[in-house]
């Protein structure tokens, strides 16, 4: 089969790879229906993560099950399935507590390389959630969004304790931030302040339910959020970038007693203890346990209650994966959908 392999920063190639097979009796092999490029893939693409040797890449997937191992009980060939960026057994203590990304038996899907024609999925019964029947083609982008960016935005909103009547600020206008806006509205937020400097992203944030847009960042951005909230700060803040500036901006934009949902993969972030201490905020985050939310999110998508697939503003054949990375790196695209 063919799939994406990253050789070095800026160098993603579509090439021949070994066909995935059932290696463990709990594995499934899926044929890819759609996959995509993640903002977190750009960390490697931009040289912020080490690449020691050419490696498969990609961790978002919607596929049709082709084959399952002897111990797989609930997932069956022919099902259309969605899974998250960590395979998880969904039975250990961390999984039962709703933290499947901390699963005691977790397997990172990025290393298996989902930007490919086929994919091995470990712990299939725990990892995969089946759609009802064969989904309509126009639902596929939204199901793919559920695999990571929607689930991550949803976790961020949940971690930030978004609820009815609350004011939410969202730091980050990538796919996760934009879907954090959608999640905040779905979870009942009264006001959602999207922080973005880009007109097309502001427009999508509005479509997803943002009520206010703040175009500044850093101290200036914090001051604007405070101006919009009677000088207090937001009740809930979603941090969906992962830089020093964005994390400090999120903490400073939160009111005393408020909550920050941190889902931007932290790179070089150091939170000064005194700043945290005097902020009075709750911090909660990490790699989003998307699996916790998948059944609910797939249901909302199938009922057409939400349309998160709108974050994909570029669709390419999988063979043009390199251009998919370039477009996102240069911010010509919010998110690239790849079709085998
Ligand atoms: Zn587990």
Instruction: Bin the helical content.
Output: 25-40%
CATH superfamily of the largest domain: Medium-chain alcohol dehydrogenases, catalytic domain
The major beta sheet can be summarized as: 7 strands, mixed
Number of helices: 12
Hey, roughly how much beta strand do the residues contain?
A: 25-35%
CATH architecture title of the largest domain: Alpha-Beta Complex
**Spatial extent as radius of gyration:** 19 Å
Find the structural class using helix and strand composition: alpha/beta
**DSSP strand count:** 18
CATH class of the largest domain: Alpha Beta
| Shape summary | globular
Task: Classify the oligomer.
Answer: single chain
Keywords: Metal-binding, Oxidoreductase, Zinc
Family: Belongs to the zinc-containing alcohol dehydrogenase family.
Protein name: Zinc-dependent alcohol dehydrogenase family protein
Pfam families: ADH_N, ADH_zinc_N
